[in-house]
Amino acid sequence: MKSQTLHSIQSLKNNQQPIAVLTAYDSSFAKLLSENGVEIILIGDSLGMVIQGQQTTVPVTLEQMCYHTRCVAAGNNGALLVADLPYMSYATEAQAIENSAALMQAGANMVKLEGGEWLLSTIKKLSERGIPVCTHLGLTPQSVDALGGFKVQGREEQQAQQMINDAIELEKAGAKLLVLECVPQKLAKEISQKLTIPTIGIGAGKETDGQVLVLHDMLGLNDSFRPKFVKNFMHDDSVHSIADAIKNYVEQVKNKTFPGSEHSFD
Ligand code: KIV
Ligand code: NA
Fold this sequence. Notes:
- With 266 residues, the chain is of the alpha/beta class.
- 40% of the residues lie in helices and 14% in strands.
- It starts with 5 loop residues before the first helix and ends in a 12-residue tail after the last helix.
- The mean pLDDT is 97.
- The structure holds 3-methyl-2-oxobutanoic acid and sodium ion.
- Sodium ion binds at residues 44-46, 57, 84, 141.
């Protein structure tokens, strides 16, 4: 695959071509994903759950994120690498700068952080220093205790309006990508239309500019964890290998057959 850049990702949105994103945490999967059409690999702090067996992403450390970012970078063949800043690693601007630098030096092309308005000046500072930033709105798992559990966000009018405003301000502050997690399809569509930068949805319906799933979820590795928005891509009759499942995912994102309404929220 040709190497993806911020510009090639932006031009996918400009040409209305959906962007295929998956998480990975090691070099073998990074190689497989990047050689089968996945344009962005997210080294997600979801590794707290799928690699470490924790209940949430809260225990994940910067050192662990750097380790997995190095592993992914070693196997990657051209995907854009986005690494999560873990819990409380961007509580102050100084921390955000120092810890983003560590992720970039480990091999990330972009860092991701969770939240809206309070992050505007942090995003501006990172962008000014040449660190591309992806933000994350809706269900932000690092705040799971404050949100009162893993549930759909933005169903009430005021909350929806706040999310739209946050998204616009984040773009103005310099964010280059926005993840929307567990958001009603209609709201995700409106945000995607209002922004110039691409939106990447998970549980946000089919109208975002791209889709992301946690790798272990879409491979059906944990049968007891099957939220509505997850599809097991190993189940298809035409799928005989993990590579087939990845190709199928990319194809279904590109032709907009995934996610279906059964994977989306009203
Ligand atoms: O950590 C992660 O895997 C994520 C995605 C679910 C967007 O943040
Ligand atoms: Na994450």
